Automatic annotation (TrEMBL):
Its EC number is 2.3.-.-. This is GNAT family N-acetyltransferase. Signal peptide: none annotated. Pfam families: Acetyltransf_1 (PF00583).
Length: 171
């Protein structure tokens, strides 16, 4: 698997072929998007909506969008934040890790998570956190299988949704 940081053109646009692939990735995960409410119609996710969502992510200081490719195809995406807005939280965060629904259960999610963790470890970070939406039982089971432990339950800052906060030491 290869990770590529998402780098829009100077005008903020994404290359058409990449945007098409990312839209297909997002659209394949309609069950997650129905839970998250991030898109008005999770069964009809459009390129302009994906482009706007990614532009919003990239506008956050310290955020990085990583595109995962295998065999030349986009198989996943990881969105990270080098620091949480709460100054008392020293850890970087994984804001989103999504694998194409047709490619799930093939190890891509595990590999993508491991590559992100390794990037943080190489930067000297000692732990990483993430939040899993309430009701995303498959997501919670996935992260727990990778060694993440629930450390809190709270509402997310962006949309006030109930979440479990998980952390994994990177030592």
């Amino acid at each position: 698997m290869i990770l590529e940081p998402l780098t829009p053109a100077e005008d903020g646009a994404l290359p058409g072929e990449l945007l098409t692939e990312l839209t297909a990735l997002y659209a394949s995960n309609h069950v997650f998007h129905a839970l998250s409410g991030d898109f008005p119609d999770p069964d009809d996710i459009r390129p302009e909506q994906v482009a706007a969502a990614l532009a919003d992510e990239l506008s956050v200081p310290g955020a990085e969008v990583l595109v995962a490719r295998s065999g030349g195809r986009v198989v996943g995406i990881g969105i990270t934040l080098d620091r949480h807005p709460d100054p008392a939280d020293p850890d970087p965060w994984i804001g989103l890790l999504m694998v194409d629904a047709g490619q799930q259960r093939r190890g891509f999610g595990r590999e993508l998570a491991g590559l992100i963790e390794e990037r943080f470890r190489a930067d000297g970070r000692t732990g990483v956190r993430l939040a899993v939406l309430a009701g995303n039982d498959a997501g919670l089971a996935f992260w727990k299988s990778l060694g993440y432990e629930v450390i809190d339950h709270r509402r997310d800052l962006e949309a006030d949704r109930p979440c479990a906060v998980l952390r994994k030491p990177l030592l």
